[in-house]
Write a structure and sequence with these properties.
The protein is mostly helical and about 650 residues long. It has 29 helices and no strands. Helix 6 runs parallel beside helix 12, helix 18 packs across helix 22 and helix 23 crosses helix 28. The protein is globular and about 80 Å long. This is Metal-nicotianamine transporter YSL7. Keywords: Membrane, Transmembrane, Transmembrane helix, Transport. It is found in: Membrane.
Length: about 650
């Protein structure tokens, strides 16, 4: 009798879900309320949204995504958004879990969209540390491997080699501050200002759609397709491994367009990861990379190389900043800084302009007439979401106490990790950090653009110049970059997740706890994954290697530039830097002036700058995860059995002669 009752309830639920699905599918056309579709479903208390299964799935996905982000960090430096993938895979894994328990009669709590949001938040927070942790930029830029590539300012006081203990400790004392800095402003950002947060909104719509039968079927098809491409790219990575027994061996060094083109970085390297990133990124980013590669490796570097002995001494090694490498690095830096500064002031201007209008419309500022039109009536969705969003308040005192406590611990701890980073440098950063975190979070809500790396570069120049070259200014600047990047990055991530939670009726408390747990996961997972790369691949960070970590040298040279000034630049390099710095600003200005219709045909300077240093060579999941077994094989001393290498006819004849003799 009990079994019959449960079956009846299940069938009733299926009918209700079918109706919900039909309503949601036609929602955009009819402009019906999303929350009315879900009003028959009870919203669990915030404690029940934080389930054990959610964090188990989050941990597994965090490891998966951290490998992907880490590989991209150490190769191209281009990191696509993984929010949607986290939501999709989180739904699939838990849905599979609950279906199994339901059939066995052990299901105690159904899977809800709130729990789905908790998983997405936790995964993105954890994998985000792989980026903000600087493993492919400022943190690895401190190492001796990168310091040797720039012969300037590489004294012992400016070098700190990676170690698992201090990396984990560093991340734990800097990664939580940003969460507390914007916590009191969540109502202003989400409800009062009604900021869009495009990625958070898109993820919320996706999660809402998953939790109907039609959406679940679509998600199942998407996961099935993902599994096919995962398997293909994993097996393809495994197959390629067999041909990489020696240096410059394998498909990754396939001279697709000939050996001369290969020397100038024009070739297809058969990387499924790059193909996957290219599919995710907008086509204008891919075109910008190609334009930058043609301009630099196809035109500029060959011409500058012909000036060897005139513009720079022929005695300098290929890695010296006084040689050709100096032009590659500093011109790329000039474009990155030009793009970053333009967008910083653009987003800052929009932020201030938007805040002014928001406050004026709410009659907070005494502007114009005191009588203002009453605000428009809230829709049912907004009423429902606002009610639940404000129900589980997070006390302001918690944010203040949390921020001050973490700041004190951080200021006391960091000088022991980085001796040149004095406690008063850290205090100054933490005084300005909440304002910068708010600006970044607000700007991200308007434009979906986080400027965390730009704020980090600002810290490099300010703290590096303050410390000076004789007192470890390079190391101090890079460490300060890490402190600043982690604060502003986690602040924008949290507000983005608050927007997703607002639209899926997930409690702010569950969002905050999930973000805390995800950040803690990331502080352990990311250093461990990086350590695996660091120990498994002896040529990590070496130019031309599989994992060259191009941005590590770029960030270190920014720190050198901040400490030593322009004396580090070779002949005519400063003039070229000025030209490309101004060109980046002008191109961005033109893109904004002509509007979206024509801007899609104009390259993005930031993307153009990437191949200036790393070249033009160009699925994510499988290929990224193959890194794990390949790293384990390398650590175990298992070598690939075959070396596939390509030689010119002349070199091949010499090899044949040598072998014949």
């Amino acid at each position: 009798m009990e079994r019959s009752s449960s079956i009846t309830k299940k069938n009733d639920g299926d009918d209700a879900d079918r109706n919900l699905s039909e309503q949601l599918v036609g929602n955009e056309e009819k402009e019906e309320s999303v929350e009315k579709i879900f009003e028959s479903r009870e919203v669990s208390p915030w404690q029940k949204q934080l389930t054990f299964r959610a964090f188990i799935v989050s941990f597994v996905l965090a490891v998966l995504f951290t490998f992907i982000v880490m590989k991209l960090n150490l190769t191209t430096g281009i990191i696509p958004s993984l929010n949607v993938s986290a939501g999709l895979l989180g739904f699939f894994f838990v849905k599979t879990w609950t279906k199994f328990l339901e059939k066995s009669g052990l299901l105690k709590q159904p899977f809800t969209r709130q729990e789905n949001t908790v998983i997405q938040t936790c995964v993105v927070a954890a994998s985000g540390i792989a980026f903000s942790g600087g493993f492919g930029s400022y943190l690895f830029g401190m190492s001796e491997v990168v310091a040797k590539q720039s012969t300037e300012t590489n004294a012992a006081s400016n070098i700190k080699n990676p170690s698992l203990a201090w990396m984990i400790g560093f991340l734990f004392v800097v990664s939580f501050l940003g969460l507390f800095s914007v916590l009191p402003l969540r109502k202003i950002m989400i409800i009062d200002f009604k900021l869009t947060y495009p990625s958070g909104t898109a993820t919320a719509h996706l999660i809402n759609s998953f939790h109907t039968p039609q959406g679940a079927k679509l998600a199942k098809k998407q996961v099935r397709a993902l599994g096919k491409f995962f398997s293909f790219s994993f097996l393809w990575g495994f197959f390629q491994w067999f041909f990489t027994a020696g240096e410059d061996c394998g498909f990754v060094n396939f001279p697709t367009f000939g050996l001369k083109a290969y020397e100038n970085k024009f070739y297809f390297d058969f990387s499924a990861t790059y193909v996957g990133v290219g599919m995710i990124c907008p086509y204008i980013i891919n075109i910008s990379l190609l334009v930058g590669a043609i301009l630099s490796w196809g035109i500029m570097w060959p011409l500058i190389e012909q000036r060897k002995g005139d513009w720079y001494s022929a005695e300098y090694s290929s890695s010296s900043l006084h040689g050709l490498n100096g032009y590659k690095v500093f011109i790329a830096i000039a474009m990155i800084l030009g793009d970053g500064i333009y967008n910083f002031f653009k987003v800052l201007g929009r932020t201030l302009f938007g805040m002014y209008h928001q406050l004026r419309n709410r009659n907070v500022l005494p502007v114009g007439s005191q009588s203002s039109p009453s605000p428009p009536a809230l829709s049912y969705d907004d009423q429902r979401r606002t009610q639940l969003f404000l129900k589980d308040r997070i006390p302001i005192w918690l944010a203040i106490v949390g921020y001050v406590t973490v700041a004190i611990v951080s200021a006391a701890t960091l000088p022991h990790i980085f001796a040149p980073l004095k406690w008063y440098y850290i205090v100054v950063i933490y005084i300005f950090a909440p304002t910068l975190a708010f600006c970044n979070a607000y700007g991200c809500g308007l434009t979906d653009w986080s400027l965390a790396s730009t704020y980090g570069k600002l810290a490099i120049f300010v703290i590096g110049a303050w410390a000076g070259s004789g007192h470890g200014g390079v190391l101090a600047g890079l460490a300060a970059c890490g402190v600043m990047m982690n604060i502003v990055s986690t602040a924008s991530d949290l507000t983005q997740d608050f927007k997703t939670g607002y639209m899926t009726l997930a409690s702010p408390r569950s969002m905050f706890v999930s973000q805390i747990i995800g950040t803690a996961m990331g502080c352990i997972i990311s250093p461990c994954v990086f350590w695996l790369f660091y120990k498994a691949f002896s040529d990590l960070g070496v130019p031309g290697s599989q994992y060259s970590a191009p941005y590590a040298l770029v960030y270190r040279n920014m720190a050198i530039l901040g400490v030593e000034g322009f004396s580090a630049l070779p002949k005519h390099c400063l003039t070229l830097c000025y030209i490309f710095f101004i060109a980046a600003i002008v191109i961005n200005g033109i893109r904004d002036a002509v509007g979206p219709k024509w801007a899609k045909f104009i390259p993005v300077p930031m993307a153009m700058a990437i191949p200036f240093y790393i070249g033009a060579s160009g699925l994510i999941c499988g290929d990224g995860i193959w890194t794990l077994p390949s790293s384990v094989l390398a650590l175990a001393g298992v070598k690939p059995p075959i070396c596939m290498k390509f030689l010119s006819r002349k070199e091949n004849a010499r090899v044949d002669t040598f072998l014949g003799s």
